[in-house]
Amino acid sequence: MDLIRILLSVLVPPLGVFLQVGIGGAFWLNILLTLLGYLPGIIHAVWVIARR
Known about the structure:
By secondary structure, the chain is mostly helical.
């Protein structure tokens, strides 16, 4: 299941974080990072998924 979340995180980073932690601080932070730059959003999403 983590592999699917990581693949989704590469395509749409907030979606991968949402599937992992739901709507919370990490989700909103990921949306902000994705808006500031696509690559920081991907890195944060993969980090959140790998951490849990």
